[in-house]
Design a protein that fits this description.
Blueprint: E1 3-6, H1 12-24, E2 28-31, H2 40-45, E3 53-56, E4 59-62, H3 64-74, H4 85-120, H5 127-148, H6 161-175, H7 186-197, H8 199-211
Parallel strand pairs: 1-2
Antiparallel strand pairs: 1-3, 3-4
The protein binds glutathione.
Length: 216
């Protein structure tokens, strides 16, 4: 029975799951669900009306972190969670840092006004507000990450859910035209570039940029 991922590709949380599916080579289908006025049927799977959700045969789940953890158990190889208990916890922390601290700025304050609002809601971008978030709110978040990157991976020495959680938020920023200052954040700049070069991320970035009409 096929896995069906529900959601749209503008969501960093949908992308997290898509990267896990790609890294593990899990066959799946995707159905577009826009998280606005969702159907009563969708709410049975995702009671908060958020994306992503997933069906696996007659089972259903919601929330990207829960779906990724489930896929790790159903498809253990390649492992995307470190086996060492401390590194495992750190990987979860960086996933959470992406899912909360980074998304709070990258989503509503940058990606939404620059990419979603003009394309899908015919709204003009308040560039001054976006630039303020870029100048004032992102740097402290980046400073913290710069101090955490000791290896090519953020935790456990190998690519993990922590890198996926961080990497997906930097895709939002990249789509919105926000780069990293290599002089101020040299390690983070190299790290994000390496994560985005992975075939899983690279293919999704290209697909998404085409769908938003973005050119490099
Ligand atoms: N913790 C959730 C967050 C999901 C989330 O916030 N998704 C956004 C789209 S990026 C959404 O559905 N927003 C609609 C809403 O909040 O009603 C997860 O990891 O899946």
């Amino acid at each position: 029975m096929a896995i069906v991922l529900l959601g749209i590709n503008a969501s960093p949380f949908v992308r997290k799951v898509r990267v896990v599916l790609a890294e593990k080579g899990i066959p799946h289908e995707r159905e577009d669900v826009i998280p606005v006025n969702v159907s009563a049927e969708y709410r049975k799977i995702s009671p908060l009306g958020k994306i992503p959700a997933m069906r696996d045969g007659d089972r259903a789940l919601c929330d990207s972190s829960i779906i990724c953890a489930y896929l790790e158990r159903t498809h253990p190889e390649p492992a995307l969670y470190p086996s060492d208990p401390y590194e495992y916890a750190r990987a979860l922390w960086f996933e959470e840092y992406g899912d909360s601290a980074l998304v709070n700025v990258s989503g509503p304050k940058i990606f939404f006004p620059r990419i979603v609002a003009p394309r899908f809601f015919n709204q003009k971008t308040d560039e001054a507000a976006v630039q303020k978030a870029i100048d004032e709110e992102l740097p402290p978040l980046f400073d913290y990450l710069e101090g955490q990157i000791a290896t090519p991976a953020i935790a456990g020495g190998a690519f993990s859910i922590g890198d996926i959680g961080i990497g997906t938020q930097f895709v939002q920023l990249r789509h919105a035209g926000v780069g990293l200052d290599v002089k101020r954040w040299p390690k983070l700049t190299r790290y994000v570039a390496a994560v985005h070069e992975r075939p899983s991320f690279k293919a999704l970035i290209a697909e998404e940029r085409a769908s938003f009409g973005l050119t490099d």
